[in-house]
Thiopurine S-methyltransferase
Amino acid sequence: MTSSTPKPGESFVPTKLIKHFQASHTTRDAQSSGWSALWDSQQNDLWDRGKPAPALIDLIESAPWPAPEGRRPKALVPGCGKGYDVVMLALHGFDVYGLEVSPTGVEAARAYAAEQLDAPFAYNYGEGNQEKYPKDQRGEVTFLVGDFFKRDWESECVREGETFGGFDLIYDYTFLCALLPEMRQDWGRGMGELLGPQPAKLVCLEFPLYKDLKLPGPPWGLREGIYYDVLAGGGTGVFDNDEVAQSALQRPNKGPLERVARIRPPRTYPQGEGTDHLSIWQLKSR
């Protein structure tokens, strides 16, 4: 997903993606159909990164991910697109669920997964690390057609004999920035409800942190304070200037989650180099 942010003195020119949503998908109810239409017309290249997130790979490979004894860690990637991060996590030992609103998108993701799980590209691993993750330790991949906010897909994430206890990892990269700002509070509420108890983590690769908050999306501009306000502050996360967004970091922790780390990753996509941050969250201590 790209962002057209003008340099000083230049006027803003809406991208093809922004024009698509401004034309006939401006309401909350029309968001899913807007993304599905792009998939159906084979315009998913407007946001496709072509590989999993280097920042997430480095985080996952830095230490074993905690999970209850006797099973693999369970992960969710909402708005998973073609499934790059879903497959990468499975190659690292997670049972992963990729959620996408478009049936066409899910078909593309399943085809990609079938290819990569058999013979994965080196870009799924940190340099020299591929042999550390043998084939017999790979997790399972499940792609689901569904709307994150409707939750009718959740029952499909529970195997026979299990009780759903939340995910051990939820990953968000360009899902939040693709949503209308008015949907952010519900995004945060949903993350809190789907995340398992500590030590389960929500990992957000914050993007785009460089885009003017007043400019239209998708992608909509985000800031550290927006993530904090929605996840920890219990707010709406809707701000139109940097100063007010920054002030949200001073609000009391009334939201469902607490932030445990925020780092600038040594590797990320070219679109976010120099600005991307990884923030890591967990359910608040009781």
